[in-house]
What does this fold into?
Amino acid sequence: MNTISIDAIEAARRRIAGPVVRTPLLKLEGVAPDREIYLKLENLQPINSFKLRGALNAVAMLLPEQRAYGVWTASAGNAGQGLAYAARMIGVPCRVVAPETAPETKIARMRALGAEVLKVPFDSWWEAMDRRAFPGVEGTFVHPFDNDDFIAGNATIGLEIVEDLPQVQTVIAPIGGGGLLTGVASGVRALKPNAGIYSAEPETAAPLAFSLEQGKASGFPRWKASFVDGAGGKSLFPQMWERLRPLVDGALVVTLEETSRAMRLLAEKTRVIAEGAGALAVAAALWKLRKEDAKGPIVAVVSGGNIDLATFCEVTA
It folds into this structure.
């Protein structure tokens, strides 16, 4: 499996500069007095998600004839928004195949950015990512996580973390398909090879943790849909297993209650609104501090903030 080189990451950083915000690292105060937790606030991107980085780089790397054909992806919302944003910048059509479980707020945001959205059953959506095709959908397919250029864009997050906090010891990022975690790990390890890299997954959808237990890419037998719609899946793609296995030191699994508490904590302590997936790494960081001798400082990647406020209030009540 291809590795993402520092040269590719630096080139991606130059390519996406402008639309992409260099998001701040914010210290989480008053939670663990003897330990330092920092938040990498990717919810502050123009689409409120890290996915803008990868999408812009992936579209920029397409050949002119591929762009002219239009682009499409399979996404529960954030990758679709990123691709729609990138497609709008260059004036080409964007189509998104989305699962029926995708929140309406994300569907609406994709459409507002100009995407044509087709809602399909979850299993059909997952299959579209695997097959890279869907009946009746035309255009150049941009994979939302298993794509070197998409991952290189995501990896710019890792560079920023180490540059802004050279003493970082542990980095935790949520995992859905694996593109964010692979990218962050690639960027961090390019500058700080000995840093600890961990995934964060909800208990209802933890295929990486299960795959690590099994020693191979595996389906998750207890999958259940939840408000954590931007992370977790029914399985880990074999090719993503090969990418992640040499990069990740472990998988942290948190409960839905721990995730909702982390969402509430972020709002109360920092006035940050995070979606379920965005709060996973914070929940995992707090879990690791309670259960293990975690090395600090810890950086938790807040991957996104695309959540309907009514849902946010219901989940965090």
The chain has a mean pLDDT of 94. The CA atoms of residues 88 and 178 lie 26 Å apart.
